[in-house]
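To assess whether the prediction recovers the assembly geometry, we first specified each molecular entity separately, as shown.
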Amino acid sequence: MWIKAFSADDQHYVYSAWTNQIARISARLGDLLADQRPPAELRQRARQLGLLPDETCTLAVFPEPMIAAALADIESNGPQQLVLSLTEACNFRCRYCSYSGSYAHSRQHGSTSMSEATALTALRWYLAFPRRAYRLGFYGGEPLLRLPLIETLIGEARALLPAGATLDLGMTSNGWLLDDATIAFLARERIDLFVSVDGPAAVHDRYRRSARQEATFARVWDGLTRIRRQHPDYFRQHVNVSMTLAPPAALADIDAFIAGHPAVFAGKIPRLGTLSAAPSRLNEDLGIGGDESGIDLAPLRQRYLQAMIAGDAADGLSRAASEAAFASIHRRSMRAVSALVSSGGQCVPGKRCHVSVDGQLHMCEHGDEHLPIGDVHHGFDLARVRALLERYRDFVEPRCRDCWAVRLCSRCLRQLAAGPTLSEELFSARCAASRTALARDLADYCRARSRNERCFETLAERHDESIAP
Amino acid sequence: MNEAAVSAEEIETVFAGTGDDEAADKCSSECVGGSANTAAMHATM
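The predicted structure of the complete assembly is given in tokenized form:
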């Protein structure tokens, strides 16, 4: 059923996925449109109210023309971004890491590295596509363990870059190897840098340990603050913090830490992550009980909403935790669609192309090693990309076609795959979590706009906030 | 009024969206980051 009735404060609302509209309704209608009502009765009332069309709403996920266009795009234009995993080696052993061995379908820490020949082959393949903008990312393992190779690759990329094209560089690092010479190199090349800092030492060092089990905060923080002192413009424009919020929750400590270091955090929206939902024995390994396994971000959401309602600038941490959800609702299309054609949230495999150390191509760097899409020697395996999109379509379309969240929700192959198999269990868990979150977001959105109609006006324009200006 | 009857007077469209967003791939334009331990960031945010 493409409608969802909900309430916020003492107001009742209904959302229609056909029109993408939100309507305020009487309490009586709220009751008549409640989820528990028989579907036929709901459908009839929704049609009478103009919330559903007379015809049956349909969903087409990656139909054939969309697949054909996607394949033509990557074949002609190549990746928007190429991410090279230069090594599987890491000098950290963060206890929650995807590669810690706690996860059922993820590789473990290894010592395998990408050869220079493989890296150069990948780079030349990428730069042979006729693009105006290239983006090259360095990933791992810890990419700074391969600094000489990074220098070689950047030199080669600049030499081969087509005239008039731009080259952006990015890297995620644990920040352990930030000596002055490395910092000078990163600044000179204007590499967008995410350094992982989970909070103050007591929070960060809980899980982020070196391979020798040393605490890591002091050295990482020293490196980060030296970047700021030595290259303030670079730091302001290109350096940010990646923060994993792991239980037990320590939001107050993290808040105090950020507030206590405005020179580092002012103007930054940290990249937040939470622990993976993939099948794992992580909680057991971390000694976390069931009731501690999640982080309740409600305090950050409430702080964000209060700032928006008041017309104030929200702080970076609350924006990082909240803004994307409200932006997605606020920027929704007002076009009525009864025959929805959708990507469902799945990217075009290859647009954000990850190269693993062995030269295989993957959809992204977030643990999809069981779903390769080609290799650096032969390029994209278009038949495999097609097969993956068809699998995604066949899995998602029947499960999502009658859901009210169909135009707001997003899920991708990586999130649904347990190893090489698409998992009913993962889908169900994600679906339930997503619907709960979207219903909450819609209610919060209406609550906020009922108090200040223009409170989300600053979200109207899309802009890349990954790196704060 | 009939319990089941519905009336247009009881419904008012509010809070219009401003853009052309549909459920979309939210990752392709993202910077390299989201280290391996943040694999679920889009699932949980």
